[in-house]
Amino acid sequence: MSFHFPALPYPFDALEPYIDAKTMGVHYSRHHKTYFDKFMAAIQGTELEHQSLETIFARVSEHSPAVRNHGGGFFNHNLYWQCMSPQGGGQPGGLLAEAIRCHFGSFEDFKTAFSDTAATHFGSGFIWLSVAEGRLEISSTSNQDNPLMDVAEKPGIPILALDVWEHAYYLSYQNKRPDYIDAWWHVVDWDQIEQNYLDTLQR
Questions:
Q1: Which of 22, 59, 173, 195 could form a disulfide bond with 169, CB atoms 3.0-4.6 angstroms apart?
Q2: What's the Rg (C-alpha) of the chain?
Q3: Distance in Å from the first CA to the final CA of the chain
Q4: Is residue 2 part of a domain?
Q5: In Å, how far are 100, 104, 192 from 108, measured between CA atoms?
Q6: Residue 153: inside a domain, yes or no?
Q7: 22 has pLDDT over 60
Q8: Neighbour tally for 2: CB within 10 Å
């Protein structure tokens, strides 16, 4: 595999007023880039250089903490950026909307459950919507873990990610994580997340 640090799919100020440009710049250019650089250093000269992230995560408990933490940070942020857009917000459509209604009762019930999971997650981590054995499932992981890892309590294929590390929101929202979560729904790119969902059905 040849890993690369992807460009952010929109300008730093594109998600304002919901996520401010300074937060985006620091988050992407410093935090995310550092995870990538340290992940590359951790796998340099090893067999992991030639494996996919999914393959690495499937046996991450056998690898060093640097591979787990920085590889997770690299992947998790890639998905987090992808799941947002200046044209985001609203509700999903198509097969994803049907699946959400099937598994959660309604979009509003899903949104409430996801927001509650994010608001009550202790400490740093990510909140996920994943496909697990054909079902949609909400889960949370600490630090930079994710549902693809063999250490995950709820394994699955993640299609939506919300970063609840303080550096993702503290400049604008300080300790008011629920306010950040409420704002984040305005930039969720449901077209992309539906495509992520459809991709899992092709596996």
A1: 173
A2: 16
A3: 20
A4: no
A5: 10, 9, 19
A6: yes
A7: yes
A8: 5
When the pLDDT of each residue in the chain is averaged and rounded to a whole number, the result is: 97
| Cα angle value 147/55/137 (rounded, 5°) | 20
CATH code of the domain in which 179 resides: 3.55.40.20
Instruction: Give me the amino acid identity at 157.
Output: I
Tokens 């000269």 correspond to 45
Range(s) of the domain holding residue 182: 20-203
Helix, strand, or coil here: 160?
strand
Distance CA 1, CA 197 (A): 24
Q: Sign of the CA dihedral 110, 197, 167, 53?
A: positive
What is the C-alpha to C-alpha distance for residues 56 and 200, in angstroms, rounded to an integer? 19
At 199 the pLDDT is 96
Instruction: Please give the tally of structural domains in the chain.
Output: 1
Rounded Cα gap, residues 133 and 155, in angstroms: 9
SS3 144: coil
Tell me, yes or no, whether 13 lies in a domain: no
Whether residue 69 is contained in a domain is answered as: yes
Task: State the Cα–Cα distance between residues 38 and 182, nearest whole angstrom.
Answer: 32
Query: pTM for this one?
Result: 0.96
Looking up tokens 């440009």, which residue turns up? 21
**For the chain, what's the residue count?**
203
Cβ–Cβ under 8 Å, residues 134 and 103: no
